[in-house]
Amino acid sequence: MRIATWNINSVRSRVERAVALLERHDLDVLALQETKCKNEQFPLLPFEQAGYEVAMHGLNQWNGVAIISRVGIEEVQIGFPDMPTWGDPDPVAEARALGATCGGVRIWSLYVPNGRELEHPHLAYKLNWLAALRESGQAWLEENAQAQIALMGDWNVAPTDEDVWDPEFFAGKTHVSDPERAAFNAVVDTGYVDVVRPHTQGDRIFTYWDYTQLRFPKKQGMRIDFALCSPALAQRVTGASIDREERKGKGASDHAPVLVDLADDAQR
Fold first, then answer.
1. 69: which strand partners?
2. The pLDDT value given to residue 195
């Protein structure tokens, strides 16, 4: 089984790329973030014609998450318990988390809030969001130690200095601050495993390159997209990679897809 996550940065703009990605990598499941459309605007037909089912959650032209699967979509869940809200004067639970069971694996497509600036209220929202995710993630493992769970998506955190092209460049900015890194590591500390790092190295670990300043050709990227797997699922991982080729060419997303290969459950 092969699963993947990708911040597509508008599914309507890149639906052809998404279908090509599914075919190129023979993907069973693809978690998408930043779909940027309401449910009724989601381009379902191309995915269905390719043999995939779709679960999506989008409220407006911002955020948005989806799960594309050819191995079934069951127990679809929008958001997780106590997920923080955002907005003034009418705060809402943004379209940032979607869970579904696909081929026996509980897939979560997650789009963690950006945080914006260190003194911005959005950073507190981000930290609270990650704290609530940690609580839910820990509860899922306590309920079933053998749970097959993949927390996949754009985490908007670079957890170590190795995950950015120049730590000094990011000093005093979000994504690398101590509170954000602590919030990310708190999820890992509950038992979830970063299953991609052991299979990548050097600048090949990056998953995001800003559109400006020729960041991609200069190899000036960040690693902010992750697949964190429950202990039982991590044992099934046989390989992982980052498709940097998808970042190339006209009309590319600013993120690259992250792929994870799983052995059959019976082969563990």
1. 29, 53
2. 98
- Residue located via tokens 């499941």: 29
Any idea what the CATH number is for the domain that residue 98 is in? 3.60.10.10
121: containing domain: 2-267
Chain mean pLDDT for the chain: 97
pLDDT digit string, tens, across residues 31-56: 999 999 999 999 999 999 999 999 99
Does this model's pTM top 0.85?
Answer: yes
Q: What does the alpha-carbon distance between residue 37 and residue 18 come to, in Å, rounded to a whole number?
A: 15
Report the distance separating Cα 145 and Cα 148, nearest Å: 9
CA 181 to chain centre: 16
Q: Are 256 and 241 in contact (CB under 8 A)?
A: no
d(CA 51, CA 28): 10
Annotate the chain with three-state secondary structure: CEEEEEECCCHHHHHHHHHHHHHHHCCCEEEEECCCCCHHHCCHHHHHHCCCEEEEECCCCCCCEEEEECCCCEEEEECCCCCCCECCCCCECCCCEEEEEECCEEEEEEECCCCCCCCCHHHHHHHHHHHHHHHHHHHHHHHCCCCCEEEEEECCCCCCHHHECCCCCCCCCCCCCHHHHHHHHHHHHCCCEECCHHHCCHHHHCCECCCHHHCCCCCCCECCEEEEECHHHHCCEEEEEECHHHHCCCCCCCECCEEEEECCHHHC
Total domains, the chain = 1
Report how far residue 245's alpha carbon sits from residue 119's, in angstroms, rounded to the nearest whole number.
36
**What residues are paired with 92 via a beta bridge?**
86
